[in-house]
Amino acid sequence: MIRIAYTIGLSTIQDLGRDHNYRHGVSIGGAMDRLALEMGNALLGNNRSAAAIEVTLFPIKFEILANVNIAVTGADCSIELDGQQINPNWAFHAVKGQTLSLSKLNSGSFAYVHLAGGIDVPEVLGSRSTYLRCAFGGVEGRMLRSGDVIHTVPQTDPMPPIARGGFGAIAPDLGLTKPERAPSIAADSATILRYLPAAEHDNFDDASLDALVSAPWQITPQSSRAGYRLAGPNLSMIDKLEMRSHGIVPGVIQVPPGGAPIIQTADSQTSGGYPKIGTVIEPDMWRLAQTRIGNPVRFQKTTYEEALAAHREMTGFLDKLRALSKAYRDLLK
Amino acid sequence: MKKNVSATDLSQDEIEQIIALAKDANVRGLSIEQNDVLVRVVLTKKPDGTRNREGIEKDHAGETKVKAIMAARFLPQHPDRHGTTPRVGQHVHKGETLGYLKSGPLIVPLLSPKEGTIDKELTHANQRVEYGTAVLTISEEQSRNTVQR
Amino acid sequence: MSIRLSAFSKSKDQANISLLGTTAMLFEAPGAFDLSTQKRIWALANDVQGWDGIKEAIPGMTNMMLTFTTPCEDPTGLKKKLLGAWEKATDWKIEGKTIEIPVTYGGELGPHLDDAAKLTDMSVDELVSLHANRDYAVFALGAHPGLGYLGITDKRIWVPRREVPVLSIPAGSVSIGGMQTAVSASPGASGWHTLGHTDVEFFFPHKENPTLLSAGDTVRFRVERIIP
User: Fold this and answer.
1) Would you say residue A163 has pLDDT above 90?
2) What is the ipTM of this complex?
3) Are the C-beta atoms of residues B102 and B76 closer than 8 Å to each other?
4) Fewer beta carbons below 10 Å: N end or C end of chain B?
């Protein structure tokens, strides 16, 4: 049990989101960086989809109300337990009365604070994720605020305190193969996002298809958990298309008639009718989530096989982390 | 008893099963080779059932070898937090992090078993260590000098 | 301003199947944008929902999206199977309910009423009467929780989506886009033209059936007031 001692807002409870509710128009939602969410749960031995606190504005401080094992994953920020530095992507034990604080973001956007067992808030439509737009899920469907007390799901076989200074995971940036930079892509700090062409890809003119992969795309401040709006050259179509509304998923790159692309993210609409130039592959969506507003991304066309391989690599990374974390936790017993 | 198990693409469940079986059988060392990562888990029961988890060994008076508690690569620094662990000649407290052991995606700290001074690094950065490999030594003698400053 | 009606009503010769990354597949039915095609979509979704590896089969407007439980390993095989299932899909009869929705057209909560009237070369009153005096079928739910896609609007009020989507319109906004009309169930971004507003609520997250509208229902808008 912990209490939010200080926050300036925007932090919410998120898990892996809602399945089977597209038919009601309810988006998947859940953590923007699903990999980080799963990593924290792997370290603590939680269910894959256990809920955590998604932190987007720093600093945030927590008062520990009862002894608990904690993991912090995702964005690289300064993590302190009673003033003592904690490594990123780390699981550790905190005791009643201590203060955990997350401040000074070094890189990334979303950090996750996990409690052993997972955070307990009522499930709505099969998930604990907060959906701010309709004000449901999480804590009363809203952002966390100072004074909120966060409980954990009761465990039948609680883990003993994580001793010996805790343990952790390497940053996924080091653990996973970076998308290989195509020769056409400039070597800069932009996040590379691999995409697969979507239905209307070939309806865009050659200049636009070229611009898509050659230009740096700035993430604009009009971005949110629903979608990342990008600024760059205008993309235009050979023939204007007016389409029938259809399902869309996180990763879909829509291009409204204005020509500025929007990448759908966790809280995206479940359907839309703007032309789709491509879909960012799921294994690269955490890279997008951790790219900060104002920073650039670059698109790189990929193949279905490469996308599947990237997916397998990510699944393997998490499987190994789960197995090794369990083995190490057993060793600590 | 030490037993090596080689297999490819073991699922998490299978790995967990093997670990569970190995524990019951009082196995001390267990290596699971995967395609791209060597998973070595060292269980800490001695044949007589007592625990041996500190990985400490005193060679002679005053000097303590700090040993790896699992097969891994030795990282003197956390990959994302350089400059946060002590170096040779520095005084350390009991339980202080001296470096890290990395196995696949997992990173665990190498902790100082006692107060003292880091005497020698016996393992270089990124070197593969086995269970029981001495990674560095800690000297009590110098630590007294350091402590009594 | 002239609108190319053909862009909306264009009939496709054959089904178009495309991938949305490795997460989902989109099936777009051949034929016209009409209720009979939609009834086959409902039947198709009902069939496909039970297939191995399919998380959810979601009807759209004469199209259907499939989401996968894990990335589809054989998209070519799945495409073939889908085409086969489409051939066998026949009209699905849903006994829906009829819902009347009172609407205040124009004013602050109908900011695009004038734009839409200009786009369609008619007066506000004409536009409203063409929008309101008609039974619409709920083709599908989507976009955001509880929103029903209603069709088909009178072709005299077919309008393209807005060039740049509006960042947020309030819940209860009644809007038109393409050959479709809808009521927003919650505040959020929209690329459509907002004509008016209703106080009816459409989404109840804590109920077992969380939406007022279901595919196959009938909706009729009643003019409560027009604010010029």
Assistant:
1) no
2) 0.94
3) no
4) C
